[in-house]
Amino acid sequence: MSKVAVVYWSGTGNTQAMAEAVAQAAGADLFTAADFSADMADGYDAIGFGCPSMGSEQLEESEFEPMFEACKARLAGKRIGLFGSYGWGDGEWMRNWEADCQALGAALVSESVICQETPDDEALSACEALGQALKGA
Questions:
Q1: In whole angstroms, what is the distance from residue 56 CA to residue 1 CA?
Q2: Beta strands, E only, the chain
Q3: What DSSP line would sit under 62-99, residue for residue?
Q4: Helix, strand, coil proportions of the chain in percent (round to 5)?
Q5: Phi, psi (5° rounding) for residue 88?
Q6: Is residue 51 a contact partner of residue 84, using CB atoms and an 8 Å limit?
Q7: Are 79 and 45 in contact (CB under 8 A)?
Q8: What is the pLDDT along the chain (137 residues), one digit of tens a residue?
Q9: How far apart are CA 30 and CA 133, in angstroms?
Q10: C-beta separation of 70 from 37 below 8 A
């Protein structure tokens, strides 16, 4: 079984609920973006990253994006999963984030999970499937 981390930022609690579902299904260590560092990434076989869409469909800029930027050099060949919520738009932030991760050489374990506003049962089920994929089940 893989050692898995789930790292997230949440402003309203929506992405936090998603992170908790991913982490529980993966048997993962759960961290906020402020509590995770690039050095910690080396200790995990797989990492789930969760961040909502902010502003003009971008990652949260004060905590999540700096942490993720610092982790980028350690993601080549690493199994990762992405998830997050949004309030408007069409998911462009996630498509951009996926492309960025693929360019780094990270291996996306499954389709990313996005939901509009509060995650419903379908979104939480998708988060659980993402968690299973992260742990390699």
A1: 38
A2: 4-8, 29-32, 46-50, 79-86, 107-108, 113-116
A3: TTHHHHHHHHGGG-TT-EEEEEEEESSS-SHHHHHHHH
A4: 45, 20, 35
A5: -155, 175
A6: yes
A7: yes
A8: 579 999 999 999 999 999 999 999 999 999 999 999 999 999 999 999 999 998 777 888 889 999 999 999 999 999 999 999 988 878 888 999 999 999 999 999 999 999 999 999 999 999 999 999 999 85
A9: 16
A10: yes
